[in-house]
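Why does residue order matter? Because the sequence determines the fold. Keep that principle in mind as you read this record.
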Amino acid sequence: MAAHEDAFRAVMIAIKERAEAVGEANMQESAKAAALRDLAAAYRHLRGGAQPGGVSVEK
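Structure:
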């Protein structure tokens, strides 16, 4: 299970680094927003949270 935990940690670190890079990047706001939206979806998917367009209802 250690390999899974290491992979999980590596992906989380990569998401965080990309988000920080996007925040500092000199790019259009719409492109920045799209990149952050995609990173947020990757984070939610990795953590097992609700997905955009999902059919489940949470209270």
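Residues 50 and 58 are 8 Å apart (CA to CA).
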